[in-house]
Write a sequence for this structure.
């Protein structure tokens, strides 16, 4: 099994949404990616925290994905060692993973870096000057539901690109 590890700060919003969306796509899609499975963890998660209620609601209503049973976990050495690839929500998360686990450098990317990093024209979504900011998925924690919808869509769009790469 190829484990895809999604990483954010608290493992209650972004990485849990990415895990839920990825597994839903793989389990229900036409793509033959049954050997892939997503997991998630947080850099500074509180063990067993529930997924954020807004994240749960948005994923259920917008994508028919249920993450209500998700429990937050702090990233561990075994997570990193068993991961096929590690996809972080921000550059800051990526740097934190690499500080904690320097041996993971060859398989750690931001989710957008991996999804969009090989665009033919070399610029990210047409905004080279704003590349660093655009490579992060902003934390929706504490914001209204609409911000969670935007965040989930950003994650889903990146995952659609990543699924294509995994199939190749």
């Amino acid at each position: 099994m190829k484990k895809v590890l999604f990483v954010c700060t608290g493992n209650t919003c972004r990485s849990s949404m990415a895990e839920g969306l990825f597994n839903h796509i793989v389990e229900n899609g036409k793509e033959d990616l049954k050997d892939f499975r997503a997991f998630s963890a947080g850099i500074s998660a509180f063990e067993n925290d529930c997924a954020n209620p807004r994240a749960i609601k948005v994923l259920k209503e917008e994508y028919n994905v249920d993450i209500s049973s998700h429990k937050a976990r702090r990233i561990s050495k075994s997570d990193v060692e068993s991961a096929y690839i590690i996809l972080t929500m921000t550059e800051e998360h990526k740097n934190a993973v690499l500080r904690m686990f320097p041996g993971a450098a060859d398989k750690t990317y931001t989710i957008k870096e991996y999804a969009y990093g090989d665009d033919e024209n070399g610029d990210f979504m047409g905004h080279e000057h704003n590349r660093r900011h655009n490579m992060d998925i902003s934390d929706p924690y504490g914001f209204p539901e609409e911000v969670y919808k935007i965040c989930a869509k950003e994650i889903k769009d990146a995952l659609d690109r990543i699924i294509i790469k995994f199939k190749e």
In short: Residues 145-167 form the longest helix (23 residues).
